[in-house]
Amino acid sequence: MKTPVKHTIGEEALLGLLQKAGPQASQTLKSINERGLPTRRVEAWHYTDLRNLLKNYPDVGSSNEATAKTAMATCKIGLPGITLPIINGGYHPELATTLPQKILVASQCQTQDWGEIAKDDAIGLMNMGLASDGLTIIVNENALIEDRICLSHIMTDTKSAATRHRVKIGAGASLTLMERHLTANRVAAVTNTVCDLEVGDRSIVTWVIDQQMCDLATRFGQLNVNLGANAELTILILNSGGKLVRQEINVEVTGEGSELNIRGVNLIGEGAHIDVTTRLDLRVPDTVSNEIFRNVVVGNGHGVFQGLINVASIAQKTDARMACNSLLLSDASEFSAKPELEIFADDVQCAHGATVSDIDEDQLFYLMARGIPEKQSRELLITAFVAEVFESLEVEQIGEVLNERIDNWLSNNG
User: Fold this and answer.
1) Percent helix, strand and coil across the chain, each rounded to 5?
2) pLDDT 10s per residue in the chain (414 long)?
3) How far apart are CA 279 and CA 262, in angstroms?
């Protein structure tokens, strides 16, 4: 006889929200009620014991135009472009920037056609049960969009929000999209955002995830990508806030001749737990992929990187590389790295590696011997360690903003 799961306080709060969410939440409600949230026994969540880490799941948030205006004024966007504001989980078209004719944006109040969701996909399950808003963005074929499109997610209260976005990039298009996740106040908000991205053949796309929520907030994020032939996709990730963060990147490469670059920096502060998990499924020949992550952990922060590259038997001539390098700046800091390769083809170039270290004492002494104070010397060395990730960006303004974010974090935590 199967023993019923004894739910935690966080699970009970989540189940209560799912019960109020209606028929769309039935599958999620059944799954979490029977199995609970993932623990260390679930391989995909081995380093992020969600059942014990998730302490609460507050009621769903809401906002009116006045709240949205205040939130946007409080959280400076920092980059020119097209702003699509999502405040407390709700889209505010009245405050959105005018769109070029080559882009169609529509609000999807009810999410449908979820497809099959794996048992260990806790983010997808929670999103399926709770998402009530999101955007569908369609970019025309051969459209060259110079202005950046920014999905600005802002939370103002200790509430929860779940959104799902669908983005379809036409063949031959070129543009940059940003997800920004912020808290207007120091609140214990919980957010869940899933983005489904289809990149058409010959397209050139940059997707930026900039997460800078406060040190009480929880964020679950998932980016699911289908990459077409001869397309170029660059994914940039910067985590510089949050108490509990899990960002998943799932890419299915289905077009020959494509190029994928994933670059990330995780700045993990006191008491924070930040997990980035990536999965690349390479299904066709002649593709290139590169992943590089740099992580800085202070205090008793805990970071996680899990990276899986799966090369199918048909995917000959694959060139796939992955590197994860971490700096631990205190004895209490932790970082768990799990790079994996699953190769079923025989004519490939694949490599992965992971390192963990502290600041080089010889380099620190060199700078201090030239009159630079210790704190500033440490910040210079840390900046040099993470700067490589964004220094080669073709979009210079984005690189400047991301580096500024790094500098601000280091001044408070370095």
Assistant:
1) 25, 40, 35
2) 466 778 999 999 999 999 998 888 898 999 999 999 999 999 999 999 999 999 999 999 998 999 998 888 887 655 668 899 999 999 999 999 888 888 888 877 554 555 667 778 999 999 999 998 999 999 999 999 988 899 999 999 999 999 999 999 999 999 999 999 999 999 999 999 999 999 999 999 999 999 999 999 999 999 999 999 999 999 999 999 999 999 999 999 999 999 999 999 999 999 999 999 999 999 999 999 999 999 999 999 999 999 999 999 999 999 999 999 999 999 999 999 999 999 999 999 999 999 999 988 899 889 899 999 988 888 889 888 988 888 766 666 677 777 788 888 887 786
3) 11
Distance CA 360, CA 372 (A): 16
Rg (CA), the chain: 21
Query: In Å, what is the CA distance from 285 to each residue of 279, 314, 320, 345?
Result: 18, 6, 12, 10
Same domain, 93 and 166: yes
User: Does residue 25 fall inside a structural domain?
Assistant: no
Tell me if the pTM is above 0.90: yes
- Return the closest-CA partner of residue 16 out of 55, 58, 50: 58
Residue 307: which domain range? 61-358
Q: Are residues 301 and 235 in the same domain?
A: yes
**Tokens linked to 160:** 């929860």
